Please model this.
Amino acid sequence: MAPKNPHRRAGRRTARNNMDLSDQEADYRRANTSSEDEGDPDFDATTSTDLVHVDPAVTNFIDNAAQQIGNPHADGVALASAAIQQQCPQAALQLLAAATAKASIDTQQLQSQQDRTNQLSAHAVATADLASEGLCNSDVTYDNRYKRQNTINEQNDQCINALENRLARLEGLLSRVLTMLLNNNVDANHASHAFNTLLITGPN
Model:
């Protein structure tokens, strides 16, 4: 029986050793890679919340009103400001309706963004919890991330509250202006003062 080839046995040993080293390196990389680097394949921030659905007819109504005042990007405040300058009651009513619809849509979109931020925050908190359990190797990074997310949430809440308060005041103002228009009793000074309280200025 022919003796075994020692060179072949040595080659097989070398190959096995290389495979063992590769496995060890892979284990080391997995142990030293945080979930922030790897990401979570089950979480998709872009689809975590539904977008605000707006009736196309409402969108067209708002767009037409914006085109009417020569400002394609007009928001609710701009539309309301233009309404008070109208001489025709029907045109003023249309602009007031468009202003209310636009302000309502903007508020809903901001709320949707806040919901998405909250989901991102919950995901960040869950990841930070994993870090605290030793599944990640950078507790300080995740603590800072957690605090930073809380700060963002507080700022978003403040912005939403301010916008909701402003929208409520705008709706009340529009209601008073609408009543004056319907009664053909438009007091320009009173309306101007009311708009100034919301820092709304008419076109130059």
Notes: The mean pLDDT is 70. Residues 53-197 form one domain. The two ends are 107 Å apart (CA to CA). DSSP finds seven helices and no strands in the chain.
